[in-house]
Amino acid sequence: MSSRRDADRRSNLNGAPPRPAWAVNTGTENMSAGTSIFDPVLCELAYRWFSPPGGVVLDPFAGGSVRGIVAAKLGRQYIGIELRPEQIAANRKQAETICKDDAVQPVWMEGDACDTEKLVGTAKADLVFSCPPYADLEVYSDDPRDLSTMPYEAFRETYSRIIAACVAALNPDRFACFVVGDIRDKAGCYRGFPAHTIEAFKKAGVKLYNEAVLVTAVGSLSIRVAKQFRSGRKLGKTHQNVLVFVKGDSKKATEACGPVEVSVPIGDDGNAA
Predict the structure, then answer these.
(1) Best label site of 6, 125, 215, 262, fewest CB within 10 Å?
(2) CATH of domain 21-257
């Protein structure tokens, strides 16, 4: 299925690890300049926190290369599904340069994410991780299978089928994580896309386990929304929702991920900052 073009994002999570050299090599230092890059810090945290070392990451909306490259750098096997052959070619070209010395190479498959089970075969994922298309907010192709070309109700139905297929390909006692943001309809009202995502995962048999907010850089938002606020009182959004689901037993899923290092910043007074 066609991916939502990876949005311009920055993680604002306390205690996030310093951005490693490989992230700079992918061009992610230019995110605030408007390039289409998924936040590698968020990606690294999701992999370290919610997938086992050496595990398989399944991404049904594999638009950009970052999620695959970060997986390779962390020793995870990445399987991304994407409709557009030109996007897959671009991803592979970047990975050939950045991941050439890595033991595990990311894999991108051309195809429709509705056919996830057929595409991945007997392979089972240890984490489903993706950023789906935000409905028709941005149209990526004229392919009728592309979610961004569909009316919203048709989008929801197909989106739910893709989520169900991914959950079926997910090992028991494992996590899934989607990064989503709400979108407005033609009348300017929010559709409730995060809630619809939660509903789709619930129908697929998994439960919402964690919810976090990814805060993006404000930048020129106040300038861009000034006109629409004056005319319609629409507030600008500076965040996405990070939704984490669990399939099966959360304790077993946690144990499978192994130990995680947690650090708490300490202030000058000796207390937690």
Answers:
(1) 262
(2) 3.40.50.150
